[in-house]
Amino acid sequence: MMKGLTSFEDITSEIEDKQHRMNTCTISGAEEREIVRDLAKLKASLPQAKQLVDITPKMKELKTQKNALFGELKAKRPLIDAKSKEIDKMKAEQDKNRNEQSD
């Protein structure tokens, strides 16, 4: 995509503007070649811009889901920490019992 043009609508608008300028204004050969090159670049970037338009809502949905899952994980973190401490305590007891038996 060309610099400064980030949306499908921006690109199509720029294409229309350049085509209108070519059809209605008196321009030099060098300007016409530049416009033709710009039009080719703009038209080539349309599929990529269209793809971006198509995936943006899905990206937003996935981000919302990720944030919801992160919130759930954050809410469960104290329970996870408590269970981990309980497991560590049981392991320490188990090690202590093993050491006492080996003596």
Describe the protein's architecture and organization.
The chain has 103 residues and is mainly alpha-helical. It has one domain. 88% of the residues lie in helices and 0% in strands. It is built from 2 helices and no strands. It is rod-shaped. The mean pLDDT is 90.
Rg over C-alpha atoms, rounded to the nearest angstrom: 31 Å
Helical residues, percent:
over 70%
| Alpha carbon gap, first and last residue | 75 Å
So what's the overall shape?
rod-shaped
Q: What portion of residues belong to β-strands?
A: under 5%
Total DSSP helices: 2
Unreliable stretches covering 5 or more consecutive residues = none
Largest sheet: none
- Average pLDDT, rounded to a whole number, is 90
Return the structural class: mainly alpha
Number of domains: 1
Summarize the structure.
With 103 residues, this protein is an all-alpha fold. It contains 2 helices and no strands.
Keywords:
mainly alpha, 103 residues
Give the helix/strand layout:
Blueprint: H1 8-24, H2 29-102
Helix pairs in contact: 1-2
